[in-house]
Amino acid sequence: MLNQIIITMLGFFLIAFPSSLFSEINSPIFKQIVCSVNVGNKNAKELSLEIADNEQKRSYGLMNRKDMKPNTGMLFIWKNRQIQNFWMKNTHFNLDLFFLNNQGEIIEIYKNAKAFDETNIKSQNEVKFVVELKSGEYPLQIGDKFNCPFKELLK
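^ that's the sequence the OP posted. Answer follows.
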């Protein structure tokens, strides 16, 4: 009798709580940093960026989140410069991707990556850093610079 009650309760739990909740439970924990970005000749804007600095965090990225707060994003970090590949699998909102050189300067941009699109987004250049921001939130251009503690992040 007790087993039937447990099985019934487990079945109800699995039906009542969609699998997306389990994905969020398995989400890695991201440290955050505050960076600024110079938008053209205007004043710098502060951003709170989550750090994706290992394979698990880079693979998970912004997947399974329903939205992003303004002035937030994700900073992807690799130890070595290389061509980087992204996709939008399980990402619920469009993103702009900014590919940075070692000094944080934008050298390449991919605008408006579509939510849930599994098409490969491949950088043209070898990079160590990529920033993802909500699409259209910042009118950044090639040559604009992110000011983050990059040297400290690579330790």
